Amino acid sequence: MHLIADAIVLAVRAHGEHGAVVRALTPVDGVQAGYVRGGRSRRIGPILQPANVIRGEWRARSDEQLPALAVELLRSRATLFASPLPAAAIEWLTVLTAIALPEGQPYPRLHEALTGVLDAIEAAPAARGWAGSVARYELLLLAELGFGLDLDRCVVTEGAGDLAFVSPKSGIAVSRAAAAGYEARLFALPAFLRDGGEADWGDALAALALTGHFLARDILSDRRAEPLVARERLLDRLKRAVA
After folding, report:
1. Spans of the chain below 50 pLDDT
2. Phi then psi dihedrals of residue 65, to 5 deg
3. pLDDT value at position 225?
4. How many CB atoms lie within 10 A of CB 226?
5. What is the spatial distance between Cα 65 and Cα 221, in angstroms, rounded to a whole number?
6. CB-hemisphere CA count at 13 Å for 19?
């Protein structure tokens, strides 16, 4: 194996006395893992901060061997970790991506979307401009992994009009009329998830409640549920920002 690609650092795990195993998301080759010699040193460690963009060179003699990875920093987002809210968002997005995606499978749309969310966080650390984008990213990740929600038709009437809720069981939208009397059992469907518009605080939090339910049920269950702690930390800080 020999691969050279730009990538977003997702996760770093100590390996041996000084090294680190790094998982990073490339545009074409998906998540790639590699061993970085001296990955915990003062020189290389800061390069491997999650959300940083690196140029990586992966080398291995066989597909079964963990590749050696040489890294070059292309873009640092380390300064964002000085603020609790951006730091929580980056922690959640990178942990989610690292644990949810299988290695070596191409997810170009997710790479593009993750880049967009991270850029938005960098441009507006206060979260007003990017909280809804986190929910959009989670929605896309669900779809890319085969658990997409159907937000274009009503599960009861099959119509496309006045969709305002989502069934927690089927993941299909429900019209306002069909939901009458059952609203408390359904998730609200913020309009921006369908029309691509802007999200206010209330809509962003409602969207995150929706996507969080399906992430926990379909992807982050059992032994993979631990990263949800990072999501709860993000939600707590977002709610504090709203207050």
Report:
1. none
2. -90, 140
3. 77
4. 10
5. 29
6. 13
Report yes or no: 48 and 36 within 8 Å, Cβ to Cβ.
yes
Per-residue pLDDT reduced to its tens digit, 128-137:
789 999 999 9
Q: Are 25 and 8 in contact (CB under 8 A)?
A: yes
CA distance 172 to 167: 6
- Specify the long-range contacts of residues 84-88, CB closer than 8 Å, at least 24 apart: 84/237, 85/125, 85/126, 85/127, 85/234, 85/237, 85/238, 85/241, 86/121, 86/122, 86/125, 86/127, 88/230, 88/233, 88/234, 88/237
Q: How many CA atoms lie within 13 A of 185 on its CB side?
A: 9
Please count the other Cβ atoms lying within 10 Å of the Cβ belonging to residue 102. 9
The SS3 assignment for 182 reads: coil
pLDDT digits (tens, 9 = 90+) for 117-127: 999 999 986 77
Q: What is the pTM of this model?
A: 0.94
Which residue type sits at 61?
Answer: R
53, 74, 184 from 8: Cα distances, Å: 5, 10, 40
Q: Tell me if residue 14 falls in helix, strand or coil.
A: strand
Read out DSSP for 153-174?
Answer: EETTT---SSEEEE-TTT-EEE
CA distances from 179 to 131, 171, 174, 188 (A): 27, 14, 6, 11
Largest Cα span, the chain: 62
**DSSP letters for 38-90:** TTTSTTTGGGG-TT-EEEEEEE-SSTTSPPEEEEEEEE--GGGGGSHHHHHHH
